[in-house]
Amino acid sequence: MANNEIVYALDLLGTAAFAASGALAGVRRGMDIFGVIVLGVVTATGGGVMRDLLLNDTPPFCFKNELYLYLAVVASVIVFLTPRRFERMRKAMLILDALGLGTFLVIGTSKALSFHLGFMGSVIMGVMTGTFGGMMRDVLSNEIPLILKHEIYASACAVGGALFYALHQYGVPEGINLTASALLVITIRCVAIIKGWQLPRGKGMEQLHF
Amino acid sequence: MANNEIVYALDLLGTAAFAASGALAGVRRGMDIFGVIVLGVVTATGGGVMRDLLLNDTPPFCFKNELYLYLAVVASVIVFLTPRRFERMRKAMLILDALGLGTFLVIGTSKALSFHLGFMGSVIMGVMTGTFGGMMRDVLSNEIPLILKHEIYASACAVGGALFYALHQYGVPEGINLTASALLVITIRCVAIIKGWQLPRGKGMEQLHF
Amino acid sequence: MANNEIVYALDLLGTAAFAASGALAGVRRGMDIFGVIVLGVVTATGGGVMRDLLLNDTPPFCFKNELYLYLAVVASVIVFLTPRRFERMRKAMLILDALGLGTFLVIGTSKALSFHLGFMGSVIMGVMTGTFGGMMRDVLSNEIPLILKHEIYASACAVGGALFYALHQYGVPEGINLTASALLVITIRCVAIIKGWQLPRGKGMEQLHF
């Protein structure tokens, strides 16, 4: 299988996994089937849509290739119908989510570089591709986005994006770069889950009123 | 009156009705007059602005024809000054809101088709034109968007959008299509209000932690 | 120092001040360092990014000149490490925030006029440049945006934007206009803080259900 085809397959897999996480959030909050689908589609495609808006590559990717939209809808409906099945598959879902995260990151960073963005811009585009959908899921669920509070998640993306940028500057072939950077994100994320790693947090000083 | 002029008139009516619903949400949460206006304008124009951003038709419609903005501001100020009047007009407001919903849907779907989007893209653009403003209203009011939780609302849009796409594919004249699809949305929405129809909901399994 | 350079210096100062306010909000909610940086960057750049998306000037300003991004990250990290220092500097921070508000307003309104927007569009672009980042900060912190509820803040921007538009129509030189309009916003904002001015508010009629 060519390199592009592997990335595409992982991209679709990640889309389904992200849609499932959005749909589950909707089910948990007692949304109706339409709300569950909306939350699934937003979680799965929100990051890439925001990236394409900022890069002015419109209409965004999922409107050019609607397979992403159909996949997100189907995954959301399956979750709506059998949410308990996904509870039992919790570990597998986290691994699929990590796969999606790493894939989305390298796709976003790579695309930003092809639009001649700089270091910060490319890393941000990668992180945004990986995390903006999940942030929208949490905002629409009326919660502080999880990735801002806990866990090595967006930060794993940032490290992977920085690696991608560096390897790109050194002329490492795209295929090797995609694989190495995605694997770094997936590895950090999975190890962080297993070990319970967290970043230092602010002290939540509620008395601070600015 | 030509067909375009009827759509335009309904579009303005819907803009005023949506602005009123946003402004009322602001009044209820004790916002000041400026916040009420912001919420009114965002509710009235947010859907069309998001659609135009995604289709890259910028600046978005209400910056090309500022009548939409003035109308939304005026409607918001009237609601701010006499909110109780709108309480007494609750039924009329729901009907006006349904009129706006149907009109916004057909405008969005029709525009997406003229930008050569596919089935899912066109339906999503229509649904987004009809519902994104209301979702922003709820997010800014710190609530889970109502349309994700209850009532036949966005789903009425989706059905109308699918009809519009199908009739368009079969070569039905635009004017008939606009009328038929908008009427379908308005009818579903109004019947759903009267009958209290709801979509099946997830079981809100709070114990599910994914 | 040329006029443009003064605006640029104030723009950077405002960026740092806005990033600090976003980062402080993150610290208060117990976010980790990555979340604090995200909130700082979004608060500092969100308004200008949204303006550039709506005007279709992409990639948005901070991706063309990454100094804005680096500055926001550095300011956020400093706040994360020493949040109490910023508590003691509360008054200075409010003044810096007002400086940023006035500067962001004139930059946004001026840019909108160069894109041939009308009165409402130009004022909205200015207000959005000044306030959208702070609204995102509050939404991501799961709060109703402060500027919709209390204080003369966005409304000071709107007055300044209207003045800028009027002086522009009368052919007042850009440099004088920038200074006068920004000073008006800063003055209104500072006097409002000192005097505790508020706009009239809705009566928060929770019994109103529309």
Q: Can you put this structure into words, describing what you see?
A:
- Chain A has 210 residues and is mainly alpha-helical.
- Helices cover 78% and strands 0% of the residues of chain A.
- The longest helix of chain A has 26 residues, at 3-28.
- The radius of gyration of chain A is 17 Å and the shape is globular.
- In chain A, 58% of the residues are buried.
- Mean pLDDT of chain A is 90; it is low at 206-210.
- Chains in contact: A-B, A-C, B-C.
- The interface between A and B is large, with 40 and 35 residues.
Summarize the structure.
The structure is a homotrimer of 210-residue chains. Chain A has 210 residues and is an all-alpha fold.
Key terms:
disordered C terminus; mainly alpha; 210 residues; homotrimer; 10 helices
Q: Taking Cα atoms only, what radius of gyration of chain A do you get, to the nearest Å?
A: 17 Å
Shape of chain A: globular
Strand content of chain A is under 5%
Q: How many strands appear in the DSSP assignment of chain A?
A: 0
Helix content of chain A: over 70%
Average predicted local confidence, pLDDT of chain A? 90
User: How is the main sheet of chain A built?
Assistant: none
Total number of domains of chain A: 1
Sequence of secondary-structure elements of chain A = HHHHHHHHHH
Q: State the end-to-end distance of chain A.
A: 56 Å
Q: Tell me which protein chains meet in the greatest interface and how many residues each side has.
A: A-B, 40 and 35 residues
Number of helices of chain A: 10
**Oligomer type:** homotrimer
- Strand-pairing-aware structural class of chain A: mainly alpha
Instruction: List segments of chain A where confidence is low: pLDDT < 50 over at least 5 consecutive residues.
Output: 206-210
